[in-house]
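Ticket #225: bound-state structure for nickel (II) ion.
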Amino acid sequence: MVKYTYYGHACFLLDDGKYKVLCDPFLTGNPKAAIRAEDVECDYILVSHAHGDHIGDAAAIAKRTGAMIVAIPEVIGVCESQCAGLKSHAMNLGGSVALPFGKVRMTLALHSTGVAGGIAAGFVIHIGDKCVYFAGDTSLFSDMKLIGRKDRIDYALLPIGDNFTMGLEDAALAAQYLNASNVIPIHYDTWPVIEQDVNRYKQLTEETTRASVHIVKPGETIELA
Ligand code: NI
Ligand code: MN
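RESOLUTION: The complex was predicted; output attached.
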C-alpha cells in the first residue's frame, strides 16, 4: 500500500509504510504549505530542478533528517552550497537507479532548470506496487508517449497551472500521451498567476482520456489504489 500526501504546490510525499520519499520540498515561503520544513520526515528527497519553488528546503531537510537527495549533479551542487556534507545520489536524464523502495528513472522535462549547465527533470518512481510519474515543471512534449510506453503509469502527477508549465488543455493531452490510469494535478493555485479551475481540468481529462483525476488538497493523504 502506497500513500500519497500533498504538501502544496509541487511538494508531495510517497510512503510505502517503510520508506518515505519526498519530492520538491518547497515549504518555507509556500503560501499553500501544509507542513513546516522543520516537521517533515523523509528518507529520500527527489528534486526536479533548482527553481526555488522546487528545490525549496531540500538541503535543510536533508541535513536534519539524514535523507538522501536524488537529483542531477548541478542541483545537488546547489544543495551542497547551502549545507555541506549531505547524502546525495547524482543521476541524469534517461538513467535509472535501484533504491531500497524501488527503481527511480529520471526523465526529460521541457523547462529551464535554475542552475547553469543543468537540465530540468521529472521522475518515474516505482514504489510498492505502484508506478508514479512526477513530471516536474514541464511543457507538453510528445515523448511523454515513450514514458507511458516504457512503464505502465498508475499515477501521473502533472502541473496544470499554466504560465510556467502546461495549462489545462496540454495537461489533459499529457495524460493521454502517458496513457495514465490516474492523474493528480499539482502546481496550481499557489499564486494568482497559476490559478486554475481544477474541476474543469478533471472534466476535460476524464472526457478525453482513460484517466481518473483525483483532486487532492494540501494536507490531504490518499491511498494509491
Ligand atoms: Ni520551474
Ligand atoms: Mn515551478
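RESOLUTION NOTES: Residues 51, 53-54, 137, 164, 187 surround manganese (II) ion (ligand 2) (CB under 6 Å).
TICKET STATUS: resolved
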